Amino acid sequence: MKHYFIVDREAWESFPKENFQYSHWIETDDPKKILIVATFPHEAAHAFWEALQAVEPLPHLLSTSAVKAAHHEVLTGIGVKPGDRTADVAKKATSVHPLFHPERG
Q: Which of 17, 20, 65, 81 is the most buried if burial means most Cβ atoms within 10 Å?
C-alpha cells in the first residue's frame, strides 16, 4: 500500500533511500516541504521513516478523515481543498506526477 507524507525537503535529502521500496516526490506551495508517496520493504523501515520529526504522514489512503489544514494549505497548487482526503490528494497529485495515483504503482 502506498503511503503519503508532507516532509521537510532537507530531511528527505539526508534520509537513506534504501529504506524505501518505492518513492517519488513533488514540490508543494512551501519551498521547504515536499509531498512524498512511498512504499517500504518492511515495517521497521516504515517506522524508522515516520519517527523523524520532519515527517508528517497524511491519513491512511483508505481513511475517511480529511488531511490536516496545514497540509491542504501547502497543496493548494495542485487543487487540494479543505475536506479532501488522502485519496483526493493522491489523485490531484497525478496532475504533476502520474505515479502518485493510488491505483498505479
A: 20
Contacts of 9 (CB under 8 A, 6+ apart): 31, 32, 33, 34
Contacts for 6 with CB less than 8 Å, ≥ 6 apart: 28, 33, 34, 35, 36, 56, 58, 70, 71, 74
Tell me the pTM: 0.94
The parent domain of residue 8 ranges over: 3-100
Question: What are residue 5's phi and psi, to 5 degrees?
Answer: -145, 150
- Residue 45 CA to residue 51 CA, distance in Å, equals 10
Per residue in 11-69, pLDDT tens?
A: 999 999 999 999 999 999 999 999 999 999 999 999 999 999 999 999 999 999 999 99
Dihedral sign (CA 105, 50, 60, 5): negative
Residue appearing with cell numbers 505515479? 99
Q: Phi and psi at residue 54, in whole multiples of 5°?
A: -80, 0
